[in-house]
Amino acid sequence: MDLRQLNTLPEKAKQILKKYPALDSVVFAAGYGQFGSLEEFSYPQIDSLMTVNFTSVAFLTRALLPGLKQKSHADLIFIGSEAALKGSRKGSIYCASKFALRGFTQALREECASSGVRVGLINPGMVKSQFFQELNFAPGEQRCQHLLPEDVAQAVSYILNANPQIVIDEINLNPLHKVVSFKK
Ligand SMILES: NC(=O)c1ccc[n+]([C@@H]2O[C@H](COP(=O)([O-])OP(=O)(O)OC[C@H]3O[C@@H](n4cnc5c(N)ncnc54)[C@H](OP(=O)(O)O)[C@@H]3O)[C@@H](O)[C@H]2O)c1
Questions:
Q1: Dihedrals φ, ψ of 74, to 5°?
Q2: How crowded is residue 86: how many other Cβ atoms within 10 Å of its Cβ?
Q3: Is 93's C-beta closer than 6 angstroms to any atom of ligand 1?
Q4: pTM of the model
Q5: Residue 77 CB less than 6 A away from ligand 1
Q6: pLDDT digits (tens, 9 = 90+) for 79-107
Q7: How far, in Å, CA of 49 to CA of 38, rounded?
Q8: In this predicted model, what pLDDT tens digit does every residue of 123-137 receive, in sequence order?
Q9: Label partner for 116 (CA 20 to 30 A): which of 45, 74, 83, 134?
Q10: Domains defined for the chain, CATH in brackets
């Protein structure tokens, strides 16, 4: 689905629930990065980044939550970012989208506290993935300079497999060395 098409999302969520009635865990990982000073962004670019990285997630969660609350146990796991923790240069809109996601998960966790739904947030540093394909920078090539998608998947697995009586609120993970390499 195209997450920019907000109005289609409630119906898509309904179809997912119908097709997968046993669904009890959702990982919200889709998102993208765009960086630059605020004045370099067009208005549609601001709208698109906030929509894909945050508003679509709120729409889908809104649509899936009633069904998940009826289960004895369910997990909602959101992929945030180190950009959810600290604003950084050229990251005004990306950071805003991830800060929004973090506030959302904190509030949602309280809201879900009387149900079996656990809400977890994972905030990775730089992960070597397609994320950087269109960007003018990337993490360093050495293994200690980037995370791999598998590292994030391991954090997801840790949350999913935790004792159902506990909730893991947030996991922050980073490569051992932070190295940003700029493309020519
Ligand atoms: N890579 C990093 O350094 C890093 C660090 C911290 C947090 N994150 C976050 O981690 C998450 C995953 O990123 P990644 O590193 O795995 O990047 P990625 O390899 O570029 O994957 C991004 C995923 O998001 C999907 N997506 C993007 N726009 C979409 C849209 N409009 N509708 C539906 N799906 C859309 C893409 O789908 P298609 O393949 O179909 O386009 C792709 O599956 C993102 O939320 C990102 O903000 C990444």
A1: -150, 155
A2: 9
A3: no
A4: 0.98
A5: no
A6: 999 999 999 999 999 999 999 999 999 99
A7: 12
A8: 999 999 999 999 999
A9: 83
A10: 22-182 (3.40.50.720)
